[in-house]
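Narrative of activities, Objective 1.

The group set out to show that a structural description can be obtained from nothing but a protein's sequence at a throughput compatible with the screening campaign. Below is one input-output pair from the validation batch, recorded exactly as produced.
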Amino acid sequence: MAIQRLRVKYGRTGDLRFIAHLDVMRLWHRAMRRAGIAMAYSEGSTPRPRLSIAAALPVGVTSEGELLDVYLKRRISAFYFLTRIQGAIPETLLVYEAVDVSMDAPSLQSQVRLAEYRVGVAPDGEAESVEDSVNGLLGKETIPWEHRRDKEVRRYDLRALVRDLWVEERSNGTVTLGMLLRADPNASGRPEQIVAALGLPEPVWVHRTRLLLAPDLERGGIR
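Output recorded for this entry:
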């Protein structure tokens, strides 16, 4: 039985960007056991650790804004958790903070609303033209889009997934874009699709900077 819920903010760097979602969950489970953290488990014939990640991070993407809820069967301080877990995780998994969350609060996944990214692109032409492309995309009311996966084709409005889009900087032929994309239980924007809609080559790198939950929006915590 769980008596405490900790929300952990963490990041993924280096080779961890190539680890799929389920493997990340297993990594956290092993780290908790190694650290001696008393996790709570689900009931039933095959108990599972009660760990909940806010939103799966696409393979190949680094991050500094991931969120994890861990349910514990013995109460500990956030300081104790951070001290113990730091010695049980690889150096490419960065843990920034842990805070208590009410056991009665809605599930973490149900509260995710937006995801913010920094995306590096190397445009074929002048970097200044990227600004025009960004303004052009933001000026459209709709962008019909098709996403093919195996034999399945999904059609939707890509523009509805973009909350904001901007050019952050230009350096050595690379343009860094900022993106604030929808990421709720019903739909999620993908940075590489936004880049394609801008008419740019595939991203050089993608980095997720933060996830925004419903309470963040209520407090006005957006750009």
